[in-house]
């Protein structure tokens, strides 16, 4: 007797900004696969080029998933191979807009001309006495609110989406340079690439994590507890 063929495969999904281990049903069509990969990579389905490789370092594709109607199993995908998702139009995807500067016109302005303008960040800071223009003498410092959220704690972030748990680990608690420097922020490393940064904001690093795994939220949105790691599972009804 022949061993039954597997109905699902565990594979690596790699894109310009993400890398994660996933499990997909071999009967899933390429079109449906693209919809799921958009949630993982941030690349819209119409801009995805998906190739199959033996490993991340293998540059020669074994197959190109170019027919949306065909199932994943048609292409002979096996366990622990790699699906590389190429963004064919990064200028319209969320992740691509953060890195693609080809559509941005270069604009140069002298320091003197910049200082004369009234619609700049510099002018705004001068009017509102922010940063180096603040009144330092005689100004009482704002009290720092104490937050009992230990670094390294497992947590869950409040979300409006039903049955969708944003879980991760607390990596930072304290004041930041963004948000006008007011109040306490909690830096979290998510278990999945559903965040907004890599632990740094506006050039200032607060903790280390992979791109799109980091996020900063206010303390009242964070619940501390023994939350296990949850993988994003896709049910048969979503295929």
TrEMBL record:
Signal sequence interval, chain numbering: none
GO biological process, one term: tubulin complex assembly
SMART domains documented for this protein: CAP_GLY
Compartment list: Cytoplasm
Record-linked PROSITE patterns: CAP_GLY_1, CAP_GLY_2
Keywords: Chaperone, Cytoplasm
GO cellular component: cell cortex; cytosol; microtubule plus-end; nucleus
Gene Ontology molecular function: any one: microtubule plus-end binding
InterPro entries: CAP-Gly_dom_sf, CAP-Gly_domain, TBCB_Ubl, Ubiquitin-like_dom, Ubiquitin-like_domsf
Domain CAP-Gly residue range list: 176-218
Pfam family, any one: Ubiquitin_2
Protein family according to the UniProt entry: Belongs to the TBCB family.
Protein name, as recorded: CAP Gly-rich domain-containing protein
